[in-house]
Amino acid sequence: HLMVLLYLMEHGASRIGDVATGIDKPNASLTRFVGFLERGGYIERTLGEDKREWILSVTKEGEKLAKEVAG
User: Fold this and answer.
1) What's the pLDDT score for residue 8?
2) Cα–Cα distance for residue pair 67/45, rounded to 1 Å
3) Long-range contacts made by residues 48-51, C-beta under 8 angstroms, separation at least 24?
4) CA-CA distance, 57 to 71, in Å (whole number)?
5) Most exposed: 26, 45, 51, 60, by fewest CB within 10 Å?
6) How many angstroms separate the most distant Cα atoms in the chain?
7) Residue 66 backbone phi and psi in degrees, to 5
């Protein structure tokens, strides 16, 4: 989960496929992480411009958690 938050903090709002590639995880397993992080209020998921892809962005709570865990 931390890898997703750190990726988004470094790269900003990103397509879910780009995050999966960036952290070397398949899209299918990333979907589970994204659901957990979204329910916890650590990331936001919005539809992209073409309405076929999800854009992920880290929230203030997500940044706080990542900084605490990463030390």
Assistant:
1) 96
2) 21
3) 48/15
4) 21
5) 51
6) 38
7) -60, -40
Question: Residue 14 corresponds to which tokens in the numbers above?
Answer: 């990103």
* The predicted structure's pLDDT at residue 56: 96
Which residues face 56 on adjacent strands? 14, 45
Q: Which residues pair with 55 in a beta bridge?
A: 15, 46
Cα 42 from Cα 26, distance rounded (Å):
20
10-66 pLDDT, tens digit each: 999 999 999 999 999 998 888 888 999 999 999 999 998 888 888 999 999 999 999
d(Cα 19, Cα 25) in Å, to the nearest integer? Answer: 8
What secondary structure does DSSP assign to the chain, as a single string? Answer: -HHHHHHHHHH-SEEHHHHHHHTT--HHHHHHHHHHHHHTTSEEEEE-TTSSSEEEEE-HHHHHHHHHHH-
